[in-house]
Design goal:
The complex is a heterodimer. By secondary structure, chain A is mostly helical. Chain A is built from 9 helices and no strands. In chain A, helix 2 packs antiparallel against helix 3 (49-65). In chain B, helix 2 crosses helix 3 (38-56) and helix 5 (98-114) crosses helix 7 (130-142). The longest helix of chain B is centred in the middle third of the chain and has 21 residues, at 66-86. Mean pLDDT of chain B is 74; it is low at 118-129 and 132-162. The chains are: A mainly alpha, B mainly alpha. Chain A binds chain B through residues 28, 31-32, 35-36, 39-40, 43-44, 49, 53, 56-57, 60-61, 64-65, 110-112, 129, 132-133, 135-137, 155-156, 158, 160, 176, 179-180, 183-184, 186-188, 190-191, 193-194, 197-198, 202, 204-205, and chain B through 7-8, 11-12, 15, 19, 21, 31, 34-36, 38, 41-51, 53-54, 56-63, 66-67, 69-70, 73-74, 77. The complex binds zinc ion (ZN).
């Protein structure tokens, strides 16, 4: 853990302790700081914007409700993501039977607006990129839910193995095993896109 | 396959390398290994492709009304909690009128158990406001007749016991 994250830990925990003392403005600061990462994580977990925001509302309601009993025993983000993944996993397990296929159209609508820069690349390349993106989104959606949450925390929250272990309440080696299996699946799903890429005689960096 | 690394080691080096989490010396060793190992080279190419594709997956902006909605929910929940507490006391009945009543009940109990000398103790009580003492006295006045009856009954009972 570097100096910045130690400072972050102390600041967030300090804010949460102030919320415990009844200071609502500290709660607003915590919300401002972590809202996007929670909503975005949930969005990638459930791949539906409205559901992600609804679940995120519940996450922050639970944070607020448990202010009275809050103790800074873990890093604040570990505690926050423990609540977040708990709700996400419950939702995914409940909705498992309703799955995938009917949500593809909505996903396109949900997607963030395309960056202007992508206009500059040619149509063929863009179509290839879109196809790859769709492939990886489907692959992530089909991952077992614990692998999915581990890979999303690792990739987008940039959490270390130890912190993911803290969130999922399992060992670091269990986290590694979840991640290795998840990334292996994702790599295999992109294998047929790799025909033209990376043929540089093993040059790295 | 012909890679000399164990699967676990291979994966750990790959992810460590792609997230720049490896020590410089270990990263260099891995680079040298990849130069000569086709299996690890393919894994690295695919991992980079996966990383790049995942980077392209941008989450939508959070709705503008997210915070407002959340604070409204908190407000509703807090109000409901408060209403539940207030529900324990009938509406329009604050705590203030209850205090002299409680005092009256207490004084009466002491009076019944210990006789009229308890009243002087109640009057000496510094914490009581004059109007509250008045109310206690008024309550006691109302009960005087009953009390007198009680007392005479008590005295005769004591005489009988002696
Ligand atoms: Zn190898």
């Amino acid at each position: 853990m570097n100096v910045t994250s130690v400072a972050t830990l102390e600041r967030d925990a300090e804010l949460m302790l102030r919320v415990r003392e009844g200071d609502e403005s500290s709660f607003a600061i915590l919300l401002e700081k972590h809202r996007n990462s929670v909503v975005h994580f949930l969005y990638r977990m459930v791949q539906n914007r409205a559901i992600a925001e609804e679940l995120a509302q519940e996450v922050f309601m639970r944070v607020y409700r448990s202010r009275g009993s809050y103790e800074p025993t873990a890093k604040f983000t570990t505690w926050l993501f423990r609540i977040t993944t708990h709700l996400a996993l419950n939702h995914v397990r409940d909705k498992r039977h309703e799955k995938l296929h009917d949500s593809i159209d909505e996903k396109v609508e949900d997607a963030a607006p395309r960056q202007l820069a992508t206009r500059e690349i040619n149509v063929e390349e863009r179509m290839l990129k879109d196809a790859r993106l769709l492939e990886i989104r489907q692959a992530i959606e089909q991952l077992p839910e614990k692998q999915r949450s581990a890979v999303l925390m690792h990739k987008y929250q940039e959490m270390e193995y130890s912190q993911i272990a803290g969130v999922l309440e399992c060992s670091e080696s269990a986290v590694k095993s979840l991640l290795f299996r998840a990334y292996e699946t994702l790599r295999m799903r992109l294998k047929h896109f790799n025909s033209g890429a990376g043929r540089d005689g093993g040059k790295v960096h | 396959m012909n890679c000399i690394l164990k699967t676990h080691e291979q994966e750990e080096l790959l992810l460590g390398y792609c997230t720049a989490a490896l020590e410089p010396e270990r990263a260099r060793t891995y680079e040298r290994h990849v130069q000569g190992c086709e299996e690890c080279r393919t894994m690295l190419e695919l991992q980079r492709l996966a990383d790049e594709t995942m980077n392209d997956w941008r989450a939508p902006e959070v709705s503008e009304e997210f915070d407002r909605k959340l604070f409204a929910r908190i407000r509703v929940e807090e109000d409901a909690k408060r209403a539940w507490w207030q529900g324990l006391v009938p509406s329009g009945w604050g705590w203030k009128p209850a205090i002299p009543l409680a005092l009256a009940a207490l004084a009466l109990t002491v009076f019944v158990w210990r006789g009229p000398e308890a009243l002087s103790v109640a009057q000496k009580s510094e914490g009581l406001k004059t109007d509250e003492i008045d109310q206690v006295e008024r309550a006691l006045d109302d009960m005087e007749a009953l009390q007198a009856l009680h007392q005479s009954d008590g005295e005769s009972a004591q005489k009988e016991a002696l």
